[in-house]
Design brief:
about 120 residues, mainly alpha, about 80% helix, elongated
Length: about 120
Amino acid sequence: MLEYLRRELGENVSLVAMKDIQGALDRAVRTAVLILGGVASMTLVVASICIMNATYTAVTERVKIIGVMRAMGATRTGIAAAFLTEGAIVALAAGVLRVLLGYPSGSLLIAFIVGGGPRGASRE
């Protein structure tokens, strides 16, 4: 069979097994997953640092308020819980806004790029 193909198509003909192609695709997918996992990990680290920075800034800006709260009898754990609750509420609000604003606009952008326009209009 190979000799027939070489006679018909020239000497640059070679055979490739599907297992070789599948192996190459598997390696490519594994590499892509590792790269995306690394990017996601770095994103989490950066987001954590940003949240810590925002919390630190909130505490340093509110030293007087914390002093007043302590003078009125608030405990350290109560003050810490108040700041952590505030941070959780801000993070939750940001997540909700991201879903409400980011998902529809992102999906519309992808649909526009892939579909060629609004509602899948063809480019013909």
